[in-house]
Amino acid sequence: MSATLSFRNGLLAAVPTLRAFAVSLAKNADRADDLVQETLVKAWDKQDSFQPGTNLKAWLFTILRNEFYSQMRKRKREVEDADGAMTAQLSVHPSQEGSTDLADFRKALELLPEDQREAIILVGASGFSYEEAAEICGCAVGTIKSRVSRARSRLQEILGIEGERDFAPGSIAIHTTNVA
User: Fold this and answer.
1) Residues in domain RNA polymerase sigma factor 70 region 4 type (predicted)?
2) What is the rounded distance in angstroms from the CA atom of residue 100 to the CA atom of residue 74?
């Protein structure tokens, strides 16, 4: 298989996890899709700078993360939805408990500081090791471990999770009255 075809296949395989990470950062599916598209375009354009045999997924996540922060700097003058009023008008109440629990978790995730949210998404949802996440974020491994630990503790606090019994079907939704 040619190097270009192998690179292309690697890009395509990474799209779902890139999109999930982009949604967690951008908090908007359309912006996340644009972010993933821009990441793929930049990666394709700079594929000669990628070193075969290294972690393509981590390289792509670094590009995506850098692109996100570049866009954030450009959008400083945009009006933010700080209190979530606009977002609340667009949300739809889920019809199943699993959807409700997921919505509650997403709201709780949005309450985390950006560095903690990013760390827990990379390690907990995207499957990166602490070392890979530290490389993507440009910080020490201990810093990532600390951020993940603080994020987990804060999520438990926000969702009212005290122990394993709280993971039974429907239990998280019962405790999330403080998530708004």
Assistant:
1) 104-155
2) 34
